[in-house]
Amino acid sequence: MHERLRQAAAALPAETSAQPFVATLTDLVQEQADSADFVRLHRWVEILERHFPPELPDPELTTE
Description:
Elements: H1 2-11, H2 19-34, H3 41-51
């Protein structure tokens, strides 16, 4: 199953807007395949932040 997902993901154009979602799903499926247990929450967060980094506040930005 994981191999089929990777093949389908590789067939997508690199510029597609779905690319971050596909990459995230592929990483999560790989993580589950490598684990004998469920993927733990901290690993979900790490994978999600890798593909969807949080926007940190700009310290130079003021509301004045």
